[in-house]
Amino acid sequence: MTFHYKLIELESERVAKEQSRQGFSDLPVECFVLMQYVEREVGVRLADLVPKDWQGWLSYQRNKQALVICRGRAFKESTFGKVRAGLNVPNGLDSINETQRGFDISPPQDIDHLLINFGGETEDPRVFLWYGENFAPYKLIYMAQVDTDPHTELDEAIVEACTWIMKRPKDKPLSQFLQERK
Fold this sequence. Notes:
This protein is α+β, with helices and mostly antiparallel strands and about 180 residues long. Helix content is about 40%, strand content about 30%. The longest helix has 21 residues, at about 1-20.
């Protein structure tokens, strides 16, 4: 029975990758609203003003089609400058500067992150939540049709994935970590 479920999981992940890769030329309004909802729930966006000792989760949009959630921390812009939220990497200040200039920011390879994007048919869009770690491809965590109001389930999936990010030892890939938790 486990073999059958694993095959279904692999097939749904293949379909999800195909649909999310196609994306939309114009993001449907429902998808945009869902993305804004998640962004508000995370609370801090890349390059927002934060307290000087801030550390936590932040989000940022990629190409106005996807949302990335990852760990961030405070960076001071200059000696007397403002303190802003940047990616939790040594060159995190660069991510702030690039965001302010309107550049698309790729998730850094040295931090785990979540990606929310959309795909499917324009009249039947789907939301996808992916887990990314180092160079490994995204692992599908959650998928739902946008018109089914997936807010609560998506929130729960994000919280669980953020827990994985915090608890996973950095020397183990996600698949091994999750296998050991069972």
